[in-house]
């Protein structure tokens, strides 16, 4: 049964290992899925095995290969719940954005999220979306803005996650955003 999902599939890299005797595995590595197969797995079983493992990896984090349309729908649901129903004109993933996790152009209502966020947990992506949606109501990081962002209950957790994630990207030699915004005052 072929994989069916909206939007493009991420790249899949298939490796064969002489050390593996029985089991195959798959995992995310940056923006692609790596599948490791036993070297002795018959070629006739390879396609079905790869397809099943990719399906499992995508099921664990379905937002990773999500389309811009899915991201837009997610932003609208978050806006209804946390940001007074504000509506962005567009929400999309950006592969060019490396200095910030997200950005918002207030004049046009456009929101862009760094594609570096695609492997992050859904609640982290949601926190960045809420942050950018809040900018549509309040362009600066003032007290009103922090109150709006604070409605999302995992905002502080996401800030901590993103700080660690940025450090990990830096250590791996992949430049990433250093922070979403100045820390909120306690």
Outline of the structure:
This protein has 186 residues and is of the alpha/beta class. Helices cover 40% and strands 17% of the residues. It is elongated and about 60 Å long.
How does this structure look, described?
The chain is an alpha/beta fold and 186 residues long. Helices cover 40% and strands 17% of the residues. It is built from 5 helices and 6 strands; from the N terminus they run βββααβββααα. Strands 1-3-2 form a 3-stranded mixed sheet, with helices on one face. α2 (68-82) crosses α3 and α3 (122-137) crosses α5. The radius of gyration is 19 Å and the shape is elongated. The relative contact order is 0.12. Residues 1-7 have low confidence and may be disordered.
Question: How many DSSP E strands?
Answer: 6
Indicate the low-confidence ranges by residue numbers.
1-7
User: Gap between N and C termini, in Å?
Assistant: 52 Å
Shape: elongated
What structural class do helix, strand and pairing data support? alpha/beta
- Main beta sheet: strand number and arrangement? 3 strands, mixed
Strand content: 15-25%
Describe the strand arrangement of the main beta sheet, using strand numbers: 1-3-2
What's the average pLDDT? 85
How much helix, percentage-wise, in residues? 25-40%
**Total of DSSP H or I helical runs spanning 4+ residues:** 5
Order of helices and strands: EEEHHEEEHHH
Oligomer: single chain
The radius of gyration computed from the alpha-carbon positions, rounded to a whole number of angstroms, is 19 Å
